[in-house]
Amino acid sequence: MFASFCRYALSGLLVFSAVVSGADEEPSAQLAVELSEEGRFAEAAVEFRRLALSDAKPEARGGFYWMAAYEYWRGKEFALADKMLDRSEDAAPLVFDKPALLLRSENAAAAKKWDESAFYLESLLTETTPADLKNLA
Question: Considering only CA atoms, which of 113, 89, 108, 90 is closest in space to residue 99?
Answer without folding.
Answer: 89
